Amino acid sequence: MEYKDLSPAVQSEELLRQLIEEKIAEGETGFPSERMLETELGVSRTTLRRSLDTLEKEAVIQKRSRKGIEINQKQTINILKMNSMSSQLPGDQVVEVLSQKIVDGVEEVNQFLELAINRPLFKLVRRRIIDGKPFSYEVSYVDSARFAGIENIDLNNTSLYSVLEDEFGINPTYGREELRFVSANEKLTEALKIPLNTPLFEVVSKAFDQNDEPFEYSKQYLIGNQIKYKINAKNIFDYLEDE
To answer: Which of the pair, 154 or 223, is modelled with greater confidence?
Structure first.
């Protein structure tokens, strides 16, 4: 195996990432000027700008005219946690219902919920706002017969899982999630107040209860430069599929 030293740009990039982690831990979003960073890191202006450009493309930092460099503090979500998103996210949150109603069956949803294709569903569409800014667009489906009357419950600023647990005795136990990138279409552009074709995370979630029965199918759309996903798993072999 051939060994090569890290390039100056990569070295300065790693030092910048370490500095950013320290700033975030201290609750700071401001960042030193390029001149100060050049002196502190001991690198050339060209090398520093190359490293900063890399971090800006990853949406780790933002360069603002007349304001200098700012850290983009992303919200962190553990992809394997079986709890509501509200409990994982800090900040001042508003969860507003855009639509909640009984709809015709959706093939992929009904198949997962083990329902007849024409079985009606309860569809909940909500927008999550954090610190005054749109954060996610969320669409959830459950069996309208199993959870009769759920369409009449006010689901603004409340956890759907809490409602299912308190009103219907459902204990969310485990789930499966599929994560991919998509581009914002016109509907998502309007809901999230972002430019058309902005990169988004699309998270398809399939949740199971204490009796291993599927109970919820959902899709969440999250602005890509506002979050980071992590996997923090214990007893990793428990996540293997059954034979």
So the answer is: 154
